[in-house]
Every structure is written in C-alpha cells, then in structure tokens.
Amino acid sequence: MNVALTYNVRHVKPDVNNPQYLKEAEFDEPETIDGIMDAIKSLGHNVIGIEADENVFEKLKKEKSNIDIVFNIAEGMNGADREAQLPAILEMLQIPYTGPKPLGYAVGLNKSVAKEILAYYHVPTPHWMTVHKLDYLEDNQFKYFPAIAKPLGEGSSKGIRARNLVSNPKELRNIVKELLEEFDQPVLIEEYLPGREFTVAVIGQPARVLPIIEIIFDALPPGMPAFDHYEAKWVYDNPEAPDPLICPAKIEPELKEKIENLVIKSFHALEMKDWARFDVRLDKNGTPNFIEVNCPPGIIPDPKQNSRFPRAARAGGLEYAQMIGEILKSACIRYGIKY
Description:
Structural class: alpha+beta
Number of strands: 13
Radius of gyration: 20 Å
Number of helices: 12
CATH topology of the largest domain: D-amino Acid Aminotransferase, Chain A, domain 1
CATH architecture of the largest domain: 2-Layer Sandwich
CATH superfamily of the largest domain: ATP-grasp fold, B domain
Strand content: 15-25%
Largest sheet: 6 strands, antiparallel
Number of domains: 3
CATH class of the largest domain: Alpha Beta
Mean pLDDT: 91
C-alpha cells in the first residue's frame, strides 16, 4: 500500500523555559517520525511523509490519488479541538485514516466531556469540576480533597506538575488561578484517588487490551506526590533511572478483568478506533476509575525511552513494526481495504 504518515514534529530541543518548546511539547521528535516511517517500510509499504502544518490540506489534496490510507499521529496546531483538525480534513477529502473520527479525537482531548459521557455509561471516574473563570470556583466550592488541578485540553502531562496536587481550598484557588493565566483555557479539578495507577493500551479490530502497565512512584524524591505528573513522566523517568513501569502489571485476575472491562467500555463509549491508551487509577476501595484517554498515544521507538504503548505491545508479543501493522490492519478492516 501507499501509506501517508501525517505528523507534527518538534523543531526545538526540549526546554521547559522555551515558549516554542511548550507549544510543541505534544509533537514528536524527528527520531520518532523516522522510526514510524522505517516500520511502515519494513512491512512492505511505501511511505509518504506529510507534516500537518498550516499547508496540510493542500499537501493531502495534491497527494490524494497516491494515498491508500493515512497513519495519523498529528496533534494539530491550535485550539481546544486541534487533534480533530487532521481527521476532519481527511474526512473532507475522503481519505481513509487510522484512529477515531474527528468527534472521538475532540472528546478525548476534552477531559471534562469525556468524563460526562462515561458517567452516563456508569464508568467510575473521580469527582470533578470544570472552571472557566476563577469566580466560578469561589461560588461553587470543590469538596473533595486532596485534589488535582489540570488544564482541560492538554496532553503529554503538559501543565500537570507535582505541585498541582493540593489539600485545601486556598491552595486550589492559587493553582487554578495560575493555570487559567498560563494556558488560557478551562481548568479541570479532580479528586485525587489514593490507589495504584495503571495505563492501558487498546489495539485492533475488534479492540483488545494489551498487557496492563502499572506505574510505580518509588523512585521519586521524598515528598514528591505519587501520581503521573510531568516531572514523574519526563524528568525522573529516564534511561538512567530505575524502571517506573511494571508490564505486565502484577495484579490478581479479578482486578485485571475489572480494568480491562472498564477500558474496553470506555474505548467504545468515546468512539475510539484502532488504538488508544487509557489512564486508570484505583480509589480507596480498590475500584478502577477512568482518568483520561490518550489518542494518538505516544509511540517512541527506542525501548529505553519507556514509551507506554510500545512497551505494552512488546509485552504482548508485538515488536514495534508489528504494532504499527496491527493499527494499520485495524483501520483497513474498518474501511474494507485489503491489507
């Protein structure tokens, strides 16, 4: 097949003090783009690389006759629904692609709307409140502490720092004010659950759960909160540090079944397709709760980087290129394309 890879690439080196880097934090490194291209080629397909910048519509329109399907990892350029931009363009041009429809991408990035949908389907999720203006928080007191505040529509743990865990209304107000000013978007306040944390990859058509990953926080500095914040994910999880992931997770069959059922139910309720990764945390009673969904999830090729989706795939018997192939095959099945 002729497979187009649509992507957004980082143009600057990682530096949390660089505004350009913060804007591109969700984008992929050039090494990841090259790794995916190499994987697609190794499966016997031709690859057309297309950066999803402001000119992506013209690029896709020009290449349409040469494209059988798009492998999409584009994050989008601007706005709360940015991850839906590229899929919407592909819908307009009638080009098949991997992943959910535009609505699925938009809902997945909006943490509050995702929770509202799953609450309708009786999927457990922590108590939450969405704050658009600071006045709303003052008029509607959040009652579930400790609590975590996070930007409503960011990925890659962007804006979710260790200090975002607060224990009282005053601390909450301060961090919400900071986030509203920094990200110029609503803030999600969420009850902090004290139990174990997992991240769960889903792949294929029909969708199946890959081996569950448990995230361990033992190697964090003393006093640092034990949840998957920016520092835990990108600072302290590095090739020189102790492995913070256990895959497959060492859990009893009953809990494994509960997590898998929650994730598959969420996958379909949020209209995900082909692949996604879910963050799950246990409450004080040991009940799995939905935290958020990641699609497209990160898929860094280098095993030393601990990219979660490829880690789960390898534990499930899929090497990197095979994982890419499973995602492509899933989309081909949905579109009736011979793979």
